[in-house]
Specification:
The complex is a heterodimer of chains A (about 190) and B (about 170).
Chain A lengths: L2 H26 L14 E4 L4 E3 H4 L3 E7 L6 H16 L6 E7 L7 H9 L6 E4 L2 H10 L4 E4 L6 E5 L2 E4 L5 E5 L5 H13 L1
Chain B lengths: L1 H25 L5 E3 L2 E10 L7 E9 L5 E7 L5 E10 L2 E6 L4 E3 L3 E4 L5 E6 L10 E8 L3 E8 L8 H7 L1
The chains are: A alpha+beta (about 190), B alpha+beta (about 170).
């Protein structure tokens, strides 16, 4: 019931943070980390069935987004775009870990995620968890998700943006599908170098 | 000797080019015509990882002086087939069915492409894989019904509809 208002607020704050960060960067020539906290302690399971925590994520810069494997349209599109952008980024791409957070723990087991990622060829990470673990993660990382439809044909509505975190876990910016590849590449380059 | 090498090289180059052209041509299906309706630039992809969901993308032209309506879509190889639209609002992505059909304006076109309108399929038969042809039926209010087979392309294959749009 409060979901819509909440997501409005989060989207507005994220946009503002990204705007402030870019303005500061343009002004001073370096990236200032906005004083806005996204992220928190969590335990999920990766595609290899191993536990993954915030400490693991904080080891490298991260591009994180929500999705689910039964999604034929927007999720492969996001992952393919990230894959193409990282290819264009070249060597710097090694510093960025792409993380797909499944918002469909009911169907997305680690094995399912593993075979899903195999189709993209990149060295990506996917994670899933129990419904409670996902709830904790989504709250900490300001991700929205909800089930839509009934029976086996249900789909998931979910946050569409890609969240960028620097090494150490500080939130930096977001990518969205309306910006040009040039803008997205500049953000990723900053992220990889930070 | 030198000539023979050149000739072999030329034949090889030709074969490689011809092969590439075949691969590219195989990426989209159509055009298929039904009166003033033309369907083209059709391609399909399956969600990877065995989810058995898929999406078909294509362009429908209505060359008549009258609007038409795409009433329904169907496929014998899927448990359910429907036109859906991906909508991103307040940074939340959702898919919505279009139960009222899709309007095809006179002398206009409707483009289905990733991140927008698409034919969504669930429970796709395991016989359908990359390289298969996905049978699709479209039922139009005025033009009648049209059956065609859409090539299932590998994930990450170029998006012909988007290229088409940029031209």
């Amino acid at each position: 019931m409060f979901g819509r208002f909440w997501i409005h607020g989060v989207a507005a704050v994220l946009a503002l943070c990204a705007g402030v960060a870019i303005a500061l960067y343009l002004e001073t020539g370096r990236m200032e980390v906005p004083a806005f906290d996204i992220g928190g302690p969590f335990t999920m399971t990766d595609q290899n069935g191993r536990n993954i925590t915030k400490q693991d994520l904080d080891q490298t810069a991260v591009a994180l987004f929500a999705g689910f494997t039964h999604c034929p349209d927007v999720c492969p599109t996001t992952l393919l775009r990230l894959s193409n952008l990282l290819e264009q980024l070249g060597g710097d791409a090694e510093n960025i870990r792409v993380v797909l957070v499944s918002v469909d723990p009911e169907r997305d087991t680690p094995q399912v995620l593993k075979s899903y990622l195999a189709a993209f060829g990149g060295d990506f990470t996917a994670m899933t968890g129990t419904p409670e673990q996902l709830k904790t993660f989504a709250k900490a990382y300001r991700l929205f998700y909800e089930k839509s439809g009934n029976g086996s044909d249900y789909t998931m509505n979910h946050s569409a943006g890609v969240y960028l975190f620097g090494k150490g876990g500080a939130f930096q910016s977001t990518l969205d599908q309306h910006e040009t590849d040039d803008v997205a590449l500049r953000k990723l380059k900053m992220l990889a170098g930070a | 000797m030198g000539l023979a090498v050149l000739r072999a090289a030329a034949i090889t180059a030709f074969a490689v080019l011809a092969g590439t052209a075949n691969v590219l041509a195989a990426e989209t299906g159509g055009p298929w015509k039904l009166g003033d309706i033309v369907v083209e630039q059709a391609w399909a992809r399956l969600a990877p990882g065995g989810a058995r969901t898929g999406a078909v993308y294509l362009t429908v032209h209505n060359k008549s002086g009258q609007d038409d309506l795409l009433l329904a879509v169907d496929s014998p190889v899927a448990e359910s087939t429907a036109v859906h639209e991906t909508i991103v609002e307040n940074d939340v992505a959702r898919m919505e069915p279009l139960p009222a059909g899709v309007n095809l304006p006179s002398h206009g076109e409707v483009v289905m492409r990733p991140g927008g309108m698409h034919i969504m399929m669930t429970g796709v038969s395991s016989d359908i894989r990359v390289g298969s042809l996905m049978p699709v039926k479209m039922v139009f209010r005025d033009a009648g019904s049209l059956d065609f087979d859409v090539p299932v392309v590998p994930l990450g294959a170029s998006d012909p509809a988007e290229k088409h749009l940029k031209h």
